[in-house]
């Protein structure tokens, strides 16, 4: 996005149609349209880091203003058990129980 804005400004400054950007085409919308995203995961408790990705990424997308849903299949359905969620500690991420609590607080629907 930043690169596109910079190229549009450079082409306006020099009056060039640089990379096909005409000054009339260089207008950017003030906001972005929120996306509807469905995150799917089949990773279970055998790999806690990969299992937590779907929740962490969904939370980040929801905080950015997008509409997110989570769909769990296979081994990932066991992550909905409280005992399993509290036992998982992904590498480099907060415990799954904390991330899951934030996902629930954001009212992100989880289908399994």
Structure description:
This protein is of the alpha/beta class. The chain has two domains: 1-29, no CATH class; 32-111, Hypothetical Protein Ychn, Chain: A. Helices cover 40% and strands 12% of the residues. It contains four helices and three strands, in the order αβαβααβ. The protein has a three-stranded parallel β-sheet with strand order 1-2-3, with helices on one face. Helix 2 (48-63) links the parallel strand 1 (36-41) and strand 2. Helix 2 (48-63) packs parallel to helix 4 (96-105). The longest helix has 16 residues, at 48-63. It starts with a helix and ends with a strand.
Question: What attributes does this structure have?
Answer:
112 residues, Hypothetical Protein Ychn, Chain: A, three-stranded parallel β-sheet, 12% strand, elongated
Compact description:
By secondary structure, this protein is of the alpha/beta class.
CATH superfamily membership of the largest domain, which one? DsrEFH-like
Number of helices: 4
Spans with pLDDT under 50 lasting ≥5 residues?
16-29
Which strand order spans the largest sheet, edge to edge or round the barrel?
Answer: 1-2-3
Q: What would you call the structural class?
A: alpha/beta
CATH class of the largest domain: Alpha Beta
How many domain regions?
Answer: 2
The general outline is elongated
What is the tally of beta strands?
A: 3
What percent strand? 5-15%
Q: What is the percent of helical residues? A: 40-55%
**Radius of gyration from the CA trace?**
20 Å
What is the ordering of alpha helices and beta strands? HEHEHHE
What is the makeup of the main sheet?
3 strands, parallel
Mean pLDDT: 83
